[in-house]
Protein backbone atom coordinates (compact mmCIF):
# COMPACT_ATOMS: atom_id res chain seq x y z
CA UNK A 1 0.00 0.00 0.00
CA UNK A 2 2.83 2.45 0.79
CA UNK A 3 4.50 1.70 -2.49
CA UNK A 4 1.30 2.40 -4.42
CA UNK A 5 0.66 5.61 -2.47
CA UNK A 6 4.18 6.86 -3.11
CA UNK A 7 3.87 6.24 -6.88
CA UNK A 8 0.57 8.12 -7.01
CA UNK A 9 1.95 11.00 -4.96
CA UNK A 10 5.00 11.24 -7.19
CA UNK A 11 2.80 11.37 -10.25
CA UNK A 12 0.67 14.17 -8.78
CA UNK A 13 3.74 16.17 -7.79
CA UNK A 14 5.24 15.91 -11.31
CA UNK A 15 1.95 16.92 -12.89
CA UNK A 16 1.56 19.99 -10.66
CA UNK A 17 5.15 21.02 -11.28
CA UNK A 18 4.77 20.82 -15.05
CA UNK A 19 1.55 22.88 -14.92
CA UNK A 20 3.14 25.55 -12.78
CA UNK A 21 6.12 25.81 -15.13
CA UNK A 22 3.84 26.19 -18.13
CA UNK A 23 1.89 28.98 -16.42
CA UNK A 24 5.08 30.93 -15.66
CA UNK A 25 6.03 31.23 -19.36
CA UNK A 26 4.93 34.58 -20.84
CA UNK A 27 2.83 34.56 -24.00
CA UNK A 28 4.13 37.10 -26.61
CA UNK A 29 1.75 39.95 -27.43
CA UNK A 30 0.69 41.08 -30.94
CA UNK A 31 2.75 43.87 -32.55
CA UNK A 32 1.73 47.25 -31.26
CA UNK A 33 0.44 49.73 -33.96
CA UNK A 34 3.07 52.18 -35.06
CA UNK A 35 2.35 55.78 -36.02
CA UNK A 36 3.00 56.53 -39.73
CA UNK A 37 6.16 58.42 -40.52
CA UNK A 38 5.56 62.11 -41.31
CA UNK A 39 5.68 63.18 -44.96
CA UNK A 40 8.87 64.85 -46.08
CA UNK A 41 8.69 68.61 -46.49
CA UNK A 42 5.40 69.09 -44.59
CA UNK A 43 4.57 70.63 -41.24
CA UNK A 44 1.23 70.61 -39.52
CA UNK A 45 -1.92 68.70 -40.44
CA UNK A 46 -2.96 67.96 -44.02
CA UNK A 47 -6.36 69.37 -44.99
CA UNK A 48 -8.09 67.89 -48.05
CA UNK A 49 -8.08 70.46 -50.84
CA UNK A 50 -5.71 72.82 -48.99
CA UNK A 51 -2.54 70.73 -48.62
CA UNK A 52 -0.21 70.73 -45.63
CA UNK A 53 -0.01 73.61 -43.18
CA UNK A 54 -1.97 75.16 -40.38
CA UNK A 55 -5.54 74.06 -39.71
CA UNK A 56 -8.16 76.48 -41.05
CA UNK A 57 -10.61 77.96 -38.64
CA UNK A 58 -14.36 77.92 -39.01
CA UNK A 59 -14.44 81.64 -39.75
CA UNK A 60 -12.14 81.29 -42.73
CA UNK A 61 -9.01 82.80 -41.13
CA UNK A 62 -5.90 80.66 -40.70
CA UNK A 63 -4.43 80.14 -37.23
CA UNK A 64 -0.69 80.27 -36.84
CA UNK A 65 1.25 77.42 -35.30
CA UNK A 66 4.12 77.58 -32.86
CA UNK A 67 6.42 75.66 -35.18
CA UNK A 68 8.00 77.55 -38.08
CA UNK A 69 6.81 76.67 -41.58
CA UNK A 70 9.25 74.77 -43.82
CA UNK A 71 10.17 76.58 -47.05
CA UNK A 72 8.24 75.35 -50.09
CA UNK A 73 10.26 73.63 -52.81
CA UNK A 74 7.66 74.25 -55.55
CA UNK A 75 8.86 76.27 -58.53
CA UNK A 76 6.78 79.37 -59.37
CA UNK A 77 4.36 78.87 -62.28
CA UNK A 78 6.16 81.52 -64.34
CA UNK A 79 9.28 79.38 -64.40
CA UNK A 80 7.53 76.05 -65.03
CA UNK A 81 5.57 77.14 -68.13
CA UNK A 82 8.44 77.26 -70.59
CA UNK A 83 10.54 74.41 -69.23
CA UNK A 84 10.69 70.97 -70.82
CA UNK A 85 10.20 68.09 -68.41
CA UNK A 86 12.98 65.62 -69.22
CA UNK A 87 12.71 63.25 -66.24
CA UNK A 88 10.18 62.32 -63.61
CA UNK A 89 10.57 64.11 -60.22
CA UNK A 90 12.32 62.17 -57.51
CA UNK A 91 9.53 62.54 -54.98
CA UNK A 92 6.00 63.88 -55.26
CA UNK A 93 4.59 65.87 -52.35
CA UNK A 94 0.94 66.81 -51.78
CA UNK A 95 1.84 70.32 -52.94
CA UNK A 96 2.54 68.96 -56.43
CA UNK A 97 -1.09 67.88 -56.79
CA UNK A 98 -2.85 70.52 -58.85
CA UNK A 99 0.30 71.93 -60.45
CA UNK A 100 0.13 72.28 -64.25
CA UNK A 101 3.18 71.59 -66.37
CA UNK A 102 3.30 72.85 -69.96
CA UNK A 103 5.60 70.67 -72.07
CA UNK A 104 6.86 72.20 -75.31
CA UNK A 105 7.39 69.12 -77.48
CA UNK A 106 9.91 69.41 -80.30
CA UNK A 107 9.96 65.74 -81.27
CA UNK A 108 9.44 64.97 -84.96
CA UNK A 109 8.23 61.55 -86.14
CA UNK A 110 9.43 60.33 -89.54
CA UNK A 111 8.17 56.98 -90.96
CA UNK A 112 10.75 55.50 -93.35
CA UNK A 113 10.52 52.69 -95.93
CA UNK A 114 13.71 51.07 -97.23
CA UNK A 115 13.81 48.97 -100.42
CA UNK A 116 16.57 47.24 -102.34
CA UNK A 117 17.30 47.46 -106.06
CA UNK A 118 14.58 44.89 -106.81
CA UNK A 119 11.92 46.89 -104.97
CA UNK A 120 11.66 44.51 -102.00
CA UNK A 121 11.36 45.73 -98.43
CA UNK A 122 14.58 45.66 -96.41
CA UNK A 123 14.22 44.53 -92.79
CA UNK A 124 16.65 44.04 -89.95
CA UNK A 125 18.16 47.53 -89.94
CA UNK A 126 19.08 49.17 -86.63
CA UNK A 127 19.22 52.78 -85.53
CA UNK A 128 22.94 52.86 -86.31
CA UNK A 129 22.14 52.41 -90.02
CA UNK A 130 20.15 55.67 -90.25
CA UNK A 131 21.18 59.30 -90.40
CA UNK A 132 18.55 62.03 -90.42
CA UNK A 133 19.03 65.69 -91.29
CA UNK A 134 16.73 68.67 -90.80
CA UNK A 135 17.62 71.78 -92.78
CA UNK A 136 21.03 70.20 -93.56
CA UNK A 137 21.80 69.69 -89.85
CA UNK A 138 22.19 66.18 -88.52
CA UNK A 139 19.84 65.33 -85.65
CA UNK A 140 20.35 62.71 -82.96
CA UNK A 141 17.75 59.95 -82.86
CA UNK A 142 15.68 59.89 -79.67
CA UNK A 143 13.34 56.98 -80.50
CA UNK A 144 13.72 54.16 -82.99
CA UNK A 145 11.10 51.45 -83.44
CA UNK A 146 9.95 48.90 -86.00
CA UNK A 147 6.61 48.10 -84.37
CA UNK A 148 3.68 48.02 -86.82
CA UNK A 149 1.24 50.88 -86.40
CA UNK A 150 -2.54 50.76 -86.86
CA UNK A 151 -3.72 52.55 -89.98
CA UNK A 152 -6.33 55.24 -90.46
CA UNK A 153 -6.95 55.09 -94.22
CA UNK A 154 -9.08 57.41 -96.32
CA UNK A 155 -9.81 55.68 -99.63
CA UNK A 156 -10.35 58.10 -102.52
CA UNK A 157 -11.95 56.60 -105.62
CA UNK A 158 -11.80 58.37 -108.99
CA UNK A 159 -15.15 58.08 -110.78
CA UNK A 160 -14.04 60.13 -113.81
CA UNK A 161 -12.16 57.17 -115.29
CA UNK A 162 -13.09 55.76 -118.67
CA UNK A 163 -15.70 53.01 -118.71
CA UNK A 164 -13.26 50.14 -119.40
CA UNK A 165 -10.87 51.17 -116.61
CA UNK A 166 -13.75 51.88 -114.25
CA UNK A 167 -15.04 48.33 -114.71
CA UNK A 168 -11.69 46.89 -113.56
CA UNK A 169 -11.62 49.16 -110.52
CA UNK A 170 -15.18 48.20 -109.59
CA UNK A 171 -14.32 44.50 -109.67
CA UNK A 172 -11.21 45.02 -107.53
CA UNK A 173 -12.89 46.82 -104.63
CA UNK A 174 -13.74 43.53 -102.92
CA UNK A 175 -10.02 42.93 -102.25
CA UNK A 176 -9.57 46.09 -100.17
CA UNK A 177 -10.92 44.62 -96.95
CA UNK A 178 -8.64 41.59 -97.22
CA UNK A 179 -5.55 43.83 -97.03
CA UNK A 180 -6.56 45.38 -93.70
CA UNK A 181 -6.54 44.24 -90.07
CA UNK A 182 -9.19 44.62 -87.35
CA UNK A 183 -7.07 47.39 -85.79
CA UNK A 184 -7.39 49.60 -88.90
CA UNK A 185 -10.15 52.06 -89.69
CA UNK A 186 -11.37 53.22 -93.08
CA UNK A 187 -13.26 56.15 -94.59
CA UNK A 188 -14.38 56.22 -98.24
CA UNK A 189 -14.47 59.22 -100.59
CA UNK A 190 -15.15 59.61 -104.30
CA UNK A 191 -14.81 62.41 -106.83
CA UNK A 192 -15.84 63.23 -110.36
CA UNK A 193 -16.93 66.84 -110.63
CA UNK A 194 -16.41 67.55 -106.93
CA UNK A 195 -15.56 65.43 -103.88
CA UNK A 196 -18.07 63.42 -101.88
CA UNK A 197 -17.74 61.58 -98.57
CA UNK A 198 -19.32 58.13 -98.76
CA UNK A 199 -18.79 57.15 -95.12
CA UNK A 200 -16.86 58.32 -92.10
CA UNK A 201 -14.28 56.20 -90.34
CA UNK A 202 -15.46 52.71 -89.55
CA UNK A 203 -13.81 49.43 -88.64
CA UNK A 204 -11.79 47.88 -91.43
CA UNK A 205 -13.39 44.47 -90.89
CA UNK A 206 -16.93 45.72 -90.32
CA UNK A 207 -19.80 44.71 -92.59
CA UNK A 208 -20.41 48.36 -93.41
CA UNK A 209 -17.27 48.77 -95.54
CA UNK A 210 -18.23 46.28 -98.33
CA UNK A 211 -21.68 47.85 -98.56
CA UNK A 212 -20.24 51.34 -98.94
CA UNK A 213 -17.71 50.21 -101.53
CA UNK A 214 -20.49 48.56 -103.51
CA UNK A 215 -22.44 51.83 -103.57
CA UNK A 216 -19.30 53.74 -104.65
CA UNK A 217 -19.04 51.86 -107.95
CA UNK A 218 -19.67 54.02 -111.02
CA UNK A 219 -20.13 53.56 -114.76
CA UNK A 220 -17.33 55.88 -115.83
CA UNK A 221 -17.23 58.17 -118.83
CA UNK A 222 -16.98 57.58 -122.54
CA UNK A 223 -14.11 59.14 -124.45
CA UNK A 224 -15.55 61.42 -127.14
CA UNK A 225 -13.59 62.47 -130.19
CA UNK A 226 -14.41 66.08 -131.12
CA UNK A 227 -15.74 66.45 -134.69
CA UNK A 228 -16.22 69.92 -136.14
CA UNK A 229 -17.21 69.18 -139.72
CA UNK A 230 -19.57 66.90 -141.59
CA UNK A 231 -22.89 65.39 -140.55
CA UNK A 232 -21.51 64.33 -137.18
CA UNK A 233 -20.12 67.75 -136.30
CA UNK A 234 -21.35 69.71 -133.35
CA UNK A 235 -23.18 72.05 -135.72
CA UNK A 236 -25.29 69.64 -137.76
CA UNK A 237 -28.35 71.87 -138.13
CA UNK A 238 -27.72 74.76 -140.45
CA UNK A 239 -29.74 77.55 -141.99
CA UNK A 240 -28.44 79.54 -144.95
CA UNK A 241 -24.99 78.01 -144.37
CA UNK A 242 -24.80 79.05 -140.71
CA UNK A 243 -25.46 77.18 -137.47
CA UNK A 244 -28.85 77.67 -135.94
CA UNK A 245 -27.15 77.93 -132.55
CA UNK A 246 -24.56 80.75 -132.72
CA UNK A 247 -22.57 79.14 -129.88
CA UNK A 248 -21.76 76.24 -132.20
CA UNK A 249 -20.71 78.47 -135.10
CA UNK A 250 -17.39 77.43 -136.64
CA UNK A 251 -14.53 79.39 -135.15
CA UNK A 252 -16.11 79.64 -131.71
CA UNK A 253 -16.43 76.97 -129.01
CA UNK A 254 -16.43 74.12 -131.55
CA UNK A 255 -13.38 75.41 -133.46
CA UNK A 256 -13.10 75.42 -137.25
CA UNK A 257 -11.65 73.30 -140.03
CA UNK A 258 -8.08 74.12 -139.01
CA UNK A 259 -8.41 74.25 -135.22
CA UNK A 260 -10.39 71.88 -132.98
CA UNK A 261 -11.42 72.95 -129.50
CA UNK A 262 -11.12 69.82 -127.38
CA UNK A 263 -13.74 69.59 -124.64
CA UNK A 264 -12.24 70.13 -121.19
CA UNK A 265 -12.37 67.23 -118.76
CA UNK A 266 -13.09 67.75 -115.07
CA UNK A 267 -10.94 65.82 -112.58
CA UNK A 268 -11.09 67.40 -109.12
CA UNK A 269 -8.23 65.45 -107.54
CA UNK A 270 -7.03 68.30 -105.31
CA UNK A 271 -10.46 68.82 -103.79
CA UNK A 272 -10.85 65.11 -103.06
CA UNK A 273 -7.47 64.80 -101.33
CA UNK A 274 -8.16 67.91 -99.25
CA UNK A 275 -11.55 66.60 -98.13
CA UNK A 276 -10.00 63.28 -97.11
CA UNK A 277 -7.14 65.05 -95.31
CA UNK A 278 -9.54 67.10 -93.21
CA UNK A 279 -11.22 63.95 -91.95
CA UNK A 280 -7.80 62.46 -91.09
CA UNK A 281 -6.47 65.49 -89.24
CA UNK A 282 -8.43 64.74 -86.04
CA UNK A 283 -7.56 61.04 -85.80
CA UNK A 284 -5.88 60.09 -82.49
CA UNK A 285 -2.13 60.04 -82.11
CA UNK A 286 -0.35 56.73 -82.51
CA UNK A 287 -2.17 55.88 -85.75
CA UNK A 288 -0.60 56.13 -89.21
CA UNK A 289 -2.61 58.61 -91.31
CA UNK A 290 -2.90 57.43 -94.91
CA UNK A 291 -4.75 58.66 -98.01
CA UNK A 292 -5.07 55.92 -100.62
CA UNK A 293 -6.07 57.17 -104.08
CA UNK A 294 -7.21 54.91 -106.94
CA UNK A 295 -7.01 57.13 -110.01
CA UNK A 296 -5.24 57.97 -113.25
CA UNK A 297 -3.84 61.07 -111.53
CA UNK A 298 -5.44 63.67 -113.82
CA UNK A 299 -6.23 67.03 -112.24
CA UNK A 300 -8.33 69.85 -113.65
CA UNK A 301 -11.12 72.03 -112.29
CA UNK A 302 -10.40 71.85 -108.52
CA UNK A 303 -10.98 74.85 -106.31
CA UNK A 304 -8.05 73.97 -104.06
CA UNK A 305 -4.53 74.44 -105.37
CA UNK A 306 -1.80 71.84 -105.18
CA UNK A 307 0.40 74.02 -102.99
CA UNK A 308 -2.31 74.58 -100.37
CA UNK A 309 -3.29 70.91 -100.24
CA UNK A 310 0.33 69.79 -99.94
CA UNK A 311 0.95 72.19 -97.06
CA UNK A 312 -2.10 70.83 -95.25
CA UNK A 313 -0.81 67.28 -95.69
CA UNK A 314 2.69 68.13 -94.44
CA UNK A 315 1.29 69.97 -91.42
CA UNK A 316 -0.98 67.13 -90.29
CA UNK A 317 1.47 64.22 -90.87
CA UNK A 318 -0.53 62.61 -93.69
CA UNK A 319 1.05 60.40 -96.35
CA UNK A 320 -0.50 59.82 -99.78
CA UNK A 321 -0.34 56.39 -101.43
CA UNK A 322 -1.98 55.41 -104.67
CA UNK A 323 -2.59 52.92 -107.45
CA UNK A 324 -2.29 54.48 -110.89
CA UNK A 325 -4.65 53.03 -113.49
CA UNK A 326 -5.60 53.87 -117.06
CA UNK A 327 -3.24 55.94 -119.19
CA UNK A 328 -0.91 56.66 -116.27
CA UNK A 329 -0.25 52.93 -115.82
CA UNK A 330 1.00 52.33 -119.38
CA UNK A 331 4.70 51.70 -119.78
CA UNK A 332 6.46 54.82 -120.99
CA UNK A 333 3.33 56.93 -121.10
CA UNK A 334 2.99 56.74 -117.32
CA UNK A 335 6.44 58.25 -116.91
CA UNK A 336 5.86 61.03 -119.44
CA UNK A 337 2.53 61.93 -117.83
CA UNK A 338 4.37 63.06 -114.69
CA UNK A 339 5.64 66.12 -116.56
CA UNK A 340 3.33 69.06 -117.05
CA UNK A 341 3.09 71.27 -120.11
CA UNK A 342 2.03 74.88 -119.47
CA UNK A 343 -1.62 75.78 -120.10
CA UNK A 344 -2.64 72.11 -120.22
CA UNK A 345 -4.27 69.67 -117.85
CA UNK A 346 -2.12 67.82 -115.30
CA UNK A 347 -1.98 64.24 -116.59
CA UNK A 348 -0.59 62.73 -113.36
CA UNK A 349 -0.68 64.99 -110.31
CA UNK A 350 -0.89 62.01 -107.98
CA UNK A 351 2.81 61.19 -108.39
CA UNK A 352 3.83 64.58 -106.95
CA UNK A 353 1.67 64.03 -103.85
CA UNK A 354 3.19 60.62 -103.10
CA UNK A 355 6.78 61.82 -103.51
CA UNK A 356 6.38 64.87 -101.28
CA UNK A 357 4.61 63.09 -98.39
CA UNK A 358 6.66 59.89 -98.20
CA UNK A 359 4.09 57.64 -99.88
CA UNK A 360 4.32 55.32 -102.84
CA UNK A 361 2.57 55.07 -106.22
CA UNK A 362 2.01 51.69 -107.84
CA UNK A 363 1.01 51.41 -111.50
CA UNK A 364 -1.27 48.53 -112.49
CA UNK A 365 -3.32 47.92 -115.61
CA UNK A 366 -5.08 44.58 -115.15
CA UNK A 367 -7.53 43.45 -112.48
CA UNK A 368 -5.19 41.08 -110.64
CA UNK A 369 -2.48 43.73 -110.46
CA UNK A 370 -4.86 46.28 -108.94
CA UNK A 371 -5.97 43.77 -106.31
CA UNK A 372 -2.37 42.90 -105.39
CA UNK A 373 -1.48 46.57 -105.04
CA UNK A 374 -3.91 46.99 -102.15
CA UNK A 375 -2.16 44.38 -100.03
CA UNK A 376 1.33 45.50 -101.07
CA UNK A 377 0.83 49.15 -100.24
CA UNK A 378 -0.97 48.37 -96.97
CA UNK A 379 2.00 46.26 -95.92
CA UNK A 380 4.46 49.03 -96.77
CA UNK A 381 2.48 51.61 -94.83
CA UNK A 382 2.17 49.34 -91.78
CA UNK A 383 5.74 47.98 -91.52
CA UNK A 384 7.98 51.02 -91.56
CA UNK A 385 10.95 52.19 -89.56
CA UNK A 386 9.87 55.01 -87.25
CA UNK A 387 12.55 57.61 -86.49
CA UNK A 388 11.96 60.29 -83.85
CA UNK A 389 14.32 63.19 -83.21
CA UNK A 390 14.26 66.53 -81.38
CA UNK A 391 14.27 69.50 -83.74
CA UNK A 392 16.83 72.24 -83.19
CA UNK A 393 14.52 74.81 -84.78
CA UNK A 394 12.10 77.03 -82.81
CA UNK A 395 8.91 75.43 -81.59
CA UNK A 396 6.45 77.01 -84.04
CA UNK A 397 7.71 79.43 -86.68
CA UNK A 398 5.46 78.52 -89.63
CA UNK A 399 8.41 77.78 -91.92
CA UNK A 400 8.94 74.64 -93.96
CA UNK A 401 11.61 72.29 -92.58
CA UNK A 402 13.41 70.04 -95.03
CA UNK A 403 14.07 66.42 -93.99
CA UNK A 404 16.61 64.03 -95.49
CA UNK A 405 17.06 60.41 -94.37
CA UNK A 406 20.16 58.41 -95.32
CA UNK A 407 21.02 54.73 -94.91
CA UNK A 408 24.58 53.54 -94.50
CA UNK A 409 24.08 50.48 -96.74
CA UNK A 410 24.72 50.99 -100.48
CA UNK A 411 22.11 50.46 -103.18
CA UNK A 412 19.10 51.23 -101.00
CA UNK A 413 16.03 53.28 -101.87
CA UNK A 414 14.89 55.39 -98.92
CA UNK A 415 11.27 56.60 -99.00
CA UNK A 416 10.39 59.32 -96.46
CA UNK A 417 8.61 62.64 -96.42
CA UNK A 418 10.61 65.56 -97.76
CA UNK A 419 9.70 67.89 -94.93
CA UNK A 420 6.98 69.27 -92.72
CA UNK A 421 5.41 72.40 -91.27
CA UNK A 422 5.32 72.68 -87.45
CA UNK A 423 1.86 72.59 -85.94
CA UNK A 424 0.36 73.73 -82.66
CA UNK A 425 -1.13 70.26 -82.23
CA UNK A 426 2.35 68.96 -81.35
CA UNK A 427 2.27 70.87 -78.04
CA UNK A 428 -0.93 69.25 -76.80
For CATH, the homologous superfamily of the domain at 147-220 and 269-383 is named as von Willebrand factor, type A domain
As for the CATH topology of the domain at 147-220 and 269-383, it is: Rossmann fold
Q: Count of helical segments?
A: 9
Oligomer: single chain
Q: Termini, distance in Å?
A: 103 Å
Strand tally is 18
CATH architecture descriptor name of the domain at 147-220 and 269-383: 3-Layer(aba) Sandwich
User: What is the molecular shape?
Assistant: elongated
Average pLDDT score: 78
Order of helices and strands: HEEHEEEEEHEEHEEHEHEHHEHEEEE
* Name of the CATH first level of the domain at 147-220 and 269-383: Alpha Beta
Gyration radius, rounded: 38 Å
Largest pleated sheet = 6 strands, mixed
Q: Helicity level, as a percent range? A: 10-25%
Describe the strand arrangement of the main beta sheet, using strand numbers.
9-8-7-12-13-14
Percent of residues in β-strands: 15-25%
Model regions low in confidence, pLDDT < 50 over at least 5 residues: 1-5, 55-98
Task: Quickly give the structural class.
Answer: alpha+beta
Ordered list of secondary-structure elements with their pairings:
Layout lengths: L1 H23 L21 E2 L3 E2 L24 H4 L26 E9 L14 E5 L2 E3 L1 E5 L5 E8 L4 H10 L12 E7 L3 E9 L4 H9 L21 E2 L2 E2 L25 H12 L7 E8 L10 H10 L2 E7 L8 H4 L13 H8 L3 E3 L3 H16 L2 E6 L10 E7 L5 E3 L3 E2 L8
Descriptive account of the structure:
- The protein starts with a helix and ends in an 8-residue tail after the last strand.
- A six-stranded mixed sheet has the order 9-8-7-12-13-14, with helices on both faces.
- 22% of the residues lie in helices and 21% in strands.
- Among the domains are: 147-220 and 269-383, von Willebrand factor, type A domain (Rossmann fold); 225-262, no CATH class.
- α3 (163-172) crosses α9 (367-382) and α5 (269-280) runs parallel beside α6 (306-315).
- The chain is elongated.
- A hairpin with a 2-residue loop joins β10 (238-239) and β11.
- The longest helix is centred in the N-terminal third of the chain and has 23 residues, at 2-24.
- By secondary structure, the chain is an alpha+beta fold.
- The chain is built from nine helices and 18 strands.
Amino acid sequence: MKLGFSAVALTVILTLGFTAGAQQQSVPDAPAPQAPAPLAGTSGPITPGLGAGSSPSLTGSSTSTDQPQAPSSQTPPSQVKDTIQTAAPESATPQDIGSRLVLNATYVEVPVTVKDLKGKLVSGLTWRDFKIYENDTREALKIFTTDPAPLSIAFVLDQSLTADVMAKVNNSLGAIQGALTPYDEVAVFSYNNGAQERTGFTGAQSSRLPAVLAMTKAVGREELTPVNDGPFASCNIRQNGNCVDPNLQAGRSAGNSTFITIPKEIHTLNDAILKAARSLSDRPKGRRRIIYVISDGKEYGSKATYRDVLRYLQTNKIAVYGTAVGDSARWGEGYISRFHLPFTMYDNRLYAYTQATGGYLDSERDLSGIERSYAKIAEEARTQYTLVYASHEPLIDGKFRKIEVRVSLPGMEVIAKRGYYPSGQDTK
